[in-house]
Amino acid sequence: MFLRNDLRLLDFMNMKKELWVTALQNGTVIDHIPPEHLFEVVSILGLHKESVGITIGQNLASSKCGKKGIIKIADRFFEKDQINRIALIAPNVKLNVIRNYEVCEKIYIELPDELVDIARCPNPKCITNNEPMTTRFKVLSREESKFKCRYCRRVIEKDDLKLL
Amino acid sequence: MSTKHLVSIKDYTKEDILRVLQEAEEFEKNPNQRLLEGKVVATLFFEPSTRTRLSFETAVNRLGGRIIGFSDASTTSSSKGETLKDTIKMVSNYADLIIMRHHLEGAARYASEISDVPIVNAGDGANQHPSQTMLDLYSIYKTQGTLDNLTITMVGDLKFGRTVHSLLIALAHFKPTFHFVAPKLLAMPEEYINFCKKRNIPYYEHEDFTTEVINQTDILYMTRVQRERFTDIMEYEKVKNVYILNNAMLDKSKETLRVLHPLPRVNEISTDVDDNPKAYYFEQARNGVFARQAIICDVLGIV
Ligand SMILES: [Zn+2]
Question: Which of A23, A41, B19, B190 is buried deepest, with most CB atoms within 10 A?
Answer without folding.
Answer: A41
